[in-house]
Prior knowledge:
Layout: H1 2-12, H2 17-24, H3 28-35, H4 44-54, H5 58-62, H6 65-73, H7 76-87, H8 92-108
Pfam families: HTH_3, SinI
Protein name: Helix-turn-helix domain-containing protein
Domain HTH cro/C1-type: 6-61
Amino acid sequence: MIGKKIQGIRKEKRMSLSEVAEQAGVAKSYLSSIERGIQSNPSIQFMEKVGKVLGVSVNELLMSADNETLRQQLDDEWLQLAEEAMKSGVSKEEFKDFLEFNKWKKQSH
Length: 109
């Protein structure tokens, strides 16, 4: 999955495998084996180097297609609600607690 993501971004940026490997300071053969799925667990350092060359964060490299679809489905209103919650001091833990309570409430009725 990570390899296909790296390969897709690299091709979008019209960069060759050699260019990315050289600029990132990683072995071309290793990058190739990651892209082809022969190796599947690159280190964080490797992903940081390649991500920097490709102009993306490690999180973006790790994000699956499903997560991207979900992100696109988050409309502006949801994003605004999350932003308002953050500004009002609601912590992630409090928000998670609310969601758990809500699930519990639905199950018990």
